[in-house]
Design brief:
Layout: H1 2-10, H2 17-48, H3 52-55, E1 59-61, E2 68-70, H4 72-78, H5 80-91, H6 96-113, H7 117-135, H8 142-182, H9 184-200, H10 205-212, H11 216-236, H12 238-250, H13 258-263, H14 269-285, H15 305-320, H16 328-355
Antiparallel strand pairs: 1-2
């Protein structure tokens, strides 16, 4: 047992919640962002502003009517599996040979997992990376052994678990979306509050939303919850953090407040209450839907990705005929849910808490 512990320590293989469900999942979200999300944004920009090189086909695979064609954005989105796998491997401190070998593993797993591919990639990439790390530099033919072991273990694991994991993730996501359609008020509260809380925790709400394929009305509620946390903390802490804090939290991340939350959990009450209000307003009043990339549901106002996702969903719905046009009411809902209501409600909810001493001076102060 001692030899095994020493081996795992030497290989930097750490079995912990932090390593797998915080570090790896956060990295997975970055991989998603740099491929699928950026690809979606580039395609949207190219279409809306009629930019030729963004609309042009740069790669064709196959021939004839069955050929798969890709724009710059489309190609970026197609690399989502490898992007996630490499990001996860990097978070697990995988050596370069292991890291590069995760590229085909991620591609294969995402394809095998179907709509629930991102969650399948999460588990398979961890398995492949850790086995790859275990054999890395252990033989004189490392250049052969490490990539072969990593790829075979990864693709083998994908063959066993990718489809069932992907199916389970898709089924759960569909259940949440179905429940939100059926009970938009109560599910609007639940989805908004839960996803908003996850966004502020050191866990990736974006990765979770992507893994579950959370779109539609439930995706809109998720966006509402994330915006309530980010904009809420940015506005209610303006006195302490001024403009730097407003930008860092409002279009960066509310995770910056995690240290302060640990010291005084009561500071989390105002933005969480705000999300409990904006969620059902989004689902019941404005029928706000996220029909863009599912990862956007968990991004909130971070780089305005949530709003870009909703807008790209509108465009897709108009193009498919599911929506006749983008209306002023749509824009009103987007602005109110994502910016105005989170700011006003969080500020109002914070007033009595400050008066009662539950939120003290500098309790929201950030070291920027």
């Amino acid at each position: 047992m001692d030899k095994l512990k020493a081996f795992l320590k030497r290989k930097d293989i750490v079995f912990s919640v932090k390593r797998y469900f915080i570090d790896a999942m956060s990295a997975m979200a970055q991989g998603l962002f740099c491929t699928l999300l950026v690809g979606t944004i580039l395609n949207t920009i190219g279409t809306q502003f009629d930019i030729g090189f963004l609309k042009a086909v740069i790669v064709s695979i196959g021939s004839g009517e069955g050929a798969a064609t890709y724009t710059i954005g489309g190609l970026a989105s197609a690399m989502v599996g490898p992007g996630m796998a490499v990001a996860i491997g990097n978070a697990l401190h995988a050596p370069s040979m292991v890291l590069f070998s995760l590229i085909p593993v991620g591609f294969a797993t995402n394809a095998m997992g179907g709509a629930g591919g991102p969650l399948a990639v999460f588990f398979v990439a961890i398995i492949a990376a850790e086995f790859g790390k275990a054999v890395s530099k252990e033989t004189k033919v490392d250049i052969l052994v490490t990539p072969i072991v990593t790829i075979l273990i990864g693709v083998g694991a994908a063959a066993l678990i990718a489809e069932p994991v992907g199916t389970a993730a898709t089924a759960f996501g569909k259940m949440v979306m179905w429940a939100t359609e059926l009970h938009p008020f109560f599910m609007g509260i639940i989805v908004s509050v839960v996803v908003g809380i996850v966004l502020t925790l050191p866990i990736s709400s974006a990765a979770i939303c992507a893994a579950l394929g959370l779109v539609g009305l439930a995706g809109g509620a998720a966006v509402a919850g994330c915006c309530a946390q980010m904009v809420g903390f940015a506005v209610m802490s303006f006195k302490e953090n001024r403009w730097g804090g407003l930008v860092a939290q409002g279009i960066g991340t509310s995770m910056l407040q995690m240290g302060n939350i640990v010291k005084n959990p009561r500071i989390w009450i105002p933005p969480t209450l705000a999300s409990a209000v904006t969620g059902p307003v989004a689902t019941c009043v404005f029928k706000l839907e996220m029909n863009g990339a599912a990862i956007s549901s968990g991004m909130g106002t971070c780089g305005f990705v949530g709003q870009i996702g909703i807008y790209s969903g509108w465009l897709a719905d108009v193009a498919s005929g599911a929506k006749t046009a983008i209306t002023g009411f749509d824009w009103l809902g987007l602005v109110l849910i994502c910016f105005v209501l989170p700011a006003v409600l969080s500020w109002l909810f914070a007033l009595p808490l400050r008066k009662w001493g539950w939120i003290g001076e500098n309790d929201l102060k950030l070291e920027l």
